[in-house]
Amino acid sequence: MLRRGESDPDGLEGLLQRSGGSVRAAEGPEKVGGVRAGDDELDVAIVGGGMVGLAVACALSNMPLTKHLRVAVIDSNPALKSTNYLKKDGIPDSRVSTVTPATISFFRDIGAWEHILQQRHAFFGKMQVWDYTGLGYTRYNSRDVCKEYLGCVVENKVLCNSLLLRLQEQKEDIKKMVYPTRLASLAFPSKSRNVGVAGLKPPSTEAEELRRSNLVKLDLSDGQTLYSKLVVGADGSKSNVRQIAGIKTTGWSYPQSAIICTVEHTAANDCAWQRFLPSGPIALLPIGDNFSNIVWTMSPEEASRHKSMSPEDFVMSVNRALDFGYGPHPNSSSLDHYVERLFSDFGGTAASTKECFEVPPRATGLISERMAFPLSLMHSHDYVSKRLALVGDAAHTVHPLAGQGVNLGFGDAAALAEVISEGVSVGADIGDLSLLNRYENDRKAANVAMAAVLDGFQKMYSVDFGPLNVLRAAAFHGAQYISPLKKNIISYAMGDRKSPLFS
């Protein structure tokens, strides 16, 4: 704790002192020693133009103190060249994300949500989760926490496209911001300048040499070279940026794969459904009109078998997994009435407590290809180093059973943009480690907690043992009638709380 008159060397006051006390927003190429920075010099270079990388760029371009920063997105994905609205009447893509109200609020803040509303999306206000043994189920309703909805299912390509459309509004020429190429090599100031710098021309002036010696050097596969004060690694779970920086990770592979696809119903689906089966959970998520998205976790061998099934057999297998297969439907018991009365005095009865178990809508057809991918957990030991910050899957991956992975990434994007803005407000070096540590401290605890919760669920349901099944189902079923616990779980899943337990 600081005494009166002392300064915090790692805080904003310390950054202000080191920067000479200047307060300004970047308004173009910075002058160093009377020499203006070149067009190849950036404030922020974002490696990876997926959903999270674009969200960082969009947030920085939207905030008053950072909108003048020179930001570049480096990614060879051809989709980054297209910024037209995607048609609502086409077949939904199988790659979707369930975004929470906290993520929706972030998208609204940066001005991208209005573009999503003009493309395909599906809000849902109800969710049912149950156990294959027939011993337990719980239902959630947005009214339990006085909200309009629990979340919204959006195709990944719609999320990316909406961010690009917003960037197009913010920047006169978005093509100058997006580099449609790959990163070839990366050299940080603290590392050897001989790594991947063959052919570098001698500096034209001493001022230029001094300035660039403290920047990150990025060689691109198309032959261009960029220099940046800060590099943001948003290049996925196998992040090349993270590996070059030498940041270690902890994690493991699950003995599971996930199949994703899109199915059709005879009527619209307005609820998110999830059933825990012996091999893993299956989720049925509304995606608009009469379509739903399937996320089905199973062993790699089962995944291979289900991918090779005929469409008719696969649909039959989906309906069996969501309805009549593996075990009976859960039913309420006389004990539930007493449990409900016991806990109703501790925060009131949730609206969904009175809702009975429902059978999910039957799938009538498979309308997309089936995709399968292995599942794993990974967490970076560090999110930052000097002039580097990792976001999204480059920093952490989690089990997809609650659809929280991308929401953690968007949380990273929002937090990093805010920290950069704080640094700019005091004239600090945005690549300074003491500034970037604020981002890591903010996000690491939240991400580790969510990873632990999801990993615990995965392990809890990976054992099929009679007595454990009963205890597991009882805990599930208790959540249906213990309203205070239910409300905390909903708020945590929506991004409104930092802990799923009472706090």
UniProtKB/TrEMBL annotation:
E.C. code: 1.14.15.45, 1.14.15.46
Pfam families: FAD_binding_3 (PF01494)
A GO MF term: 2-methoxy-6-polyprenolphenol 4-hydroxylase activity
FAD-binding domain: residues covered: 221-321, 363-448
Predominant subcellular localization, coarse grouping: mitochondrion
Membrane topology, as annotated: Peripheral membrane protein
Cellular compartments annotated: Mitochondrion inner membrane
Entries under Gene3D superfamilies matching the protein: FAD/NAD(P)-binding domain
UniProt keyword Oxidoreductase present: yes
Keyword Flavoprotein among UniProt keywords: yes
Pathway: Cofactor biosynthesis; ubiquinone biosynthesis
Recorded superkingdom: Eukaryota
One record GO biological process: xanthophyll biosynthetic process
Region described as Disordered: spans on this chain: 1-34
Cofactor section: FAD
InterPro entries found in the cross-reference section: FAD-bd (IPR002938), FAD/NAD-bd_sf (IPR036188), Ubi_Hdrlase_CS (IPR018168), UbiH/COQ6 (IPR010971), UbiH/COQ6_monooxygenase (IPR051205), UbQ_mOase_COQ6 (IPR000689)
Keywords: FAD, Flavoprotein, Membrane, Mitochondrion, Mitochondrion inner membrane, Monooxygenase, Oxidoreductase, Ubiquinone biosynthesis
One GO cellular component term: extrinsic component of mitochondrial inner membrane
Assembly notes: Component of a multi-subunit COQ enzyme complex.
HAMAP family referenced in this protein's UniProt entry, alphabetically: COQ6_monooxygenase
Family membership: Belongs to the UbiH/COQ6 family.
PANTHER family linked to this entry: UBIQUINONE BIOSYNTHESIS MONOOXYGENASE COQ6, MITOCHONDRIAL
Protein name: Ubiquinone biosynthesis monooxygenase COQ6, mitochondrial
